[in-house]
Amino acid sequence: MATTSYDMSAKLQKPRVSRHGKQMHLNYECPHRLNITKVYPLQSPRGADIIISGYDDGLHILWRGGRPLSTASRTVTERVNDLSGTRTQHTEWNHPISIHKSPVTEDIPDKDKPRYEAEDEELDEDEPYPSFAQELKLSFGSPVLHLALPNIPQPSTTLQSRAQLPLLVKQRIVLAVACADASLRLITLPLTPPSASAKRNGRLGAQICDLSPSSSSSAMARDVALTWTNSSSLPAAEDQMDLDKPQQEASSANHEKLDLLVASSTSAHLETLTFYRIPIAFNDLTGGKIPNSVNPFHAVPLSSSSQCLRFSTAQYPSRQHSRLLIADVKGTLKIYDPLATKGRPSSRGTDASAEPGAWISAFNTAFQMPKGATSNYPGLAQRRKIVDVAWVSGAKAALVLLDRGEWGVWDIEAVTQKKMNTFAIQGFIGSADAAPSDLKNRSTQGLAPSTPNTRQQRQESLFGAPKPAAPATTSPRGGVCAVATAGSHGSLDDSVVLWYGSEAYHISSLASLWQRSLNSSGKDIGSLYGPGLSHIEGLDLSGEILNGITQFPTRSTALNLGALSQRDFAVTGEYRLVIIQSMRPQTPAKSLFTQATAGAGNGSSIFDQQLLDRGELDLGGMDRLLDGMGTRTNGFAPAVTKKRVGFAG
To answer: Looking at the record's lineage, which domain of life comes first (predicted)?
Structure first.
C-alpha cells in the first residue's frame, strides 16, 4: 500500500463479512499499518479475547467479545452518538496515548475503573459475531517491529497443572516489544479493558521497564522472546527444578519469588544474544511490580545472524523452561540455556560463581542447489533457510518451516547422533512448482490412501482454478503458530498453523498426524482418518502481503474436545485484520444426522458429528451415523446394511 497518512484516532469500522463453508471471515480495514499481531493466551476476567498489534507508532490493543462495558462510564455526548449512530472517528478518547507525555503508569482512580453491563453481549442473527468492547493505542514514537508474549498453557493441558505462574502473569497483560529506534521494553497492563474516562485522563495503571537504557548501541533487535524463571541462585534452583515432584511440594513452592526472563538478538558490529532478568516485587493488588529499568545479566556472541528466538513452552519448574531456540540465517537451529551450568556439577560444592549459559544441541537443514544451478557445481549448494520455528510436543520437539514451503519436526528428545538432522515427520505447503525435487519424488513413490483429506486436495487440484506460482524472492515470508492443547488420555497435543507466501494451512492435531506417519508402514492398528493438514480457504487481503496468522484461545466449553475443538484465527495483512471465526449455531442443529444421533447412547456420536461438520468424517463414522438412524423407533430412514471399505495390504 502506498498510503502513508491516516487518521490516528480512527476506530475500526464494521467488518466486511463473507462465509466459506463452516467459517465466517470478518475483514476489518485498519487505519494504520500493521507490523505484527498476536492474540494474548489469556482472556480478560469478563471473557474478552485480547488482540495485540504492533503498528508504526506503538501498540494497538483490542478487547473482543465478553461482557460489554457499561455506558455509564462514557460521557453524555458519546452515549447520544452511540444511540444515534453518528459517532465520529475524531473523538478525543480514541487518540493514541503517549507513554512519554501521559501518566500511563499512574494507578487508575476508582471513578475511572471499568464498569460492565449486567449481561453478556447478545449476538444478532444477521451479525453473529462479537464486537470490540474497547481498543487502546499506546504511542511509543517509533514502530513496533517485534512482539513477544509469555507461553501460558491452557487450563486443559497438563502443562497448566504443573506450571508455576507468577501472579503478575495471571492478572495482567505481560509483553516485550522491540521498536525501530532500537528500544526494548517490557510492558504490563491490566487484563480488563480501560474505561473511556481512563483513556481520556491517560491513567492506565501500566508498568514499563526499559531494558538496557544506558546502551549506546543503535542496532535494532532481530527478535525478542519472553518467559519467567526462579529468582534463587542458579545451581540450587537447577537441583530443585523437576516437574515430577509431588503435588504437595509444588503447592508449597507457590510462594517462590519469580523473575521475568527476556532474550533479544542484535547485530551492530557482532551478532549478540542478550538476556535480561526482571525481578517481580510482590504486590497483592496489582499482581506485582517491575522496576523502571534493567541492565542485561548475560550475553553471548553468535556466529551468524539469528532469524527468530523462541523460549521453551515447558514452564518453570521444568528443567527445560529456560531453553531457547535460535534459528539463524544459515539454516542451523541451536538450543541455548542461559541458566544452565557448563557441564553437569558433580557435587553441591561446585563453584557457584561460574558464569552460566550452555549450548544444548544444534540441528542443520539439508543442502539444496540454487534455482537454475546444476549439480555439476556442488560448491554452490546451500543449506535450506529456516523461515520460522516453534516448540511442540511439550517442548520435546521443534517444528520448523523452511524456504520453498517445506516443513518438518525435529524430535529433540529422541534424536540420535546418526539421525541428528533427520526430520521425524515432514511435509510441504504452498504451490507445487516451488516444491523441492526430493519432496516431489517422495510424493509419487507410492499410492496415497483415499482419506477425506486427500480426496479434498485431489478435488481442488482437478476442478479448482490453477494457482499462480509464488514469485521467487530472496527473503521468503512465512510463519508457524503452535498452541498446546489437550490430547487423548491426558496427553499433550498441538494445534499448528503454517503459512508461506499467501497460503495458510492448519493442523488441528499434530500428535495424530505424527502417529499416522509413523504407522504408515502397514503394521499399525491406528486409523488413517483424522485431523490432517487442511487448507485455510478464502483468505482475502485485497492484494496486501500476508504478515502473519495467530490462533485464539479455545473457549472453556471446547477445552475437553481436544483436536475437535473449533479454532478461530486472526490473519494480519498490511492494513487489514481478518478474523476467521467458526460458525457456531445459536440453536440446536436441525440437520438430518444431528437429529438421528440426538438420542443415541453412544458418546462417540458427538465426535462423529464434529467430524461431519468439518468434512473429515470417515466411512466408519458414516456407518455409525447411518446405524443410529436405522435403530431409532422414529428414525428418518430404515436400517441399512453395514458396508466396509478397506485398503489392500
So the answer is: Eukaryota
Residue 550: closest CA among 621, 460, 479: 479
Q: Which pLDDT belongs to residue 68?
A: 87
Find where cell 498426524 sits.
513
How many other CB atoms are found less than 10 A from the CB of residue 274?
A: 23
* Nearest-5° Cα angle at 27, 24 to 33: 150
Q: Mind listing the pLDDT tens digit for each residue in 499-519?
A: 999 999 999 999 999 988 877
Judged by DSSP in three states, 583 sits in coil
Residue 373 Cα distances to 258, 378, 402, 433, 449, angstroms: 53, 9, 19, 16, 35
Answer whether residue 5 is part of any domain.
Answer: no
The tally of domains found in the chain comes to 2
The helix/strand/coil state of 454 is helix
Contacts for 105-109: CB closer than 8 Å, 24+ residues apart: 105/204, 105/205, 105/206, 105/207, 105/208, 106/203, 106/205, 107/203, 107/205, 107/286, 108/190, 108/194, 108/198, 108/203, 108/204, 108/205, 109/201, 109/203
pLDDT of residue 7: 59
Q: Which carries the bigger pLDDT value, residue 370 or residue 235?
A: 370
Report strand pairing: 221-230 vs 548-551.
unpaired
**Which residue shows C-alpha cell 486443559?**
156
pLDDT at 233: 47
Is the same domain home to 234 and 319? yes
Three-state SS across 469-518?
Answer: CCCCCCCCCEEEEEEEEECHHHCEEEEEEEEECCEEEEECCHHHHHHHHH
**Distance (Å, whole) CA 249 – CA 166:** 17
Residues paired with residue 577 on neighbouring β-strands, in sequence order = 28, 572
Cα distance between residue 207 and residue 545, in whole Å: 34
Determine the pLDDT at residue 250: 43
Average pLDDT of the segment spanning 346-371 = 76
Same domain for 55 and 111? yes
Q: What is the distance between the alpha carbons of residues 335 and 354, in angstroms, rounded to a whole number?
A: 20
Cα separation, 314 vs 311, whole angstroms: 9
Show the cell assigned to 19: 462465509
Instruction: Give residue 589's pLDDT.
Output: 42
Last residue of a domain, one of 539, 571, 586: 586
Same-domain check for residues 480 and 566: yes
Query: Could you tell me what percent of the chain has a pLDDT over 90?
Result: 46
What are residue 137's phi and psi, to 5 degrees?
Answer: -120, 120
Mean pLDDT of all residues in the chain? 78
486 located within any domain: yes
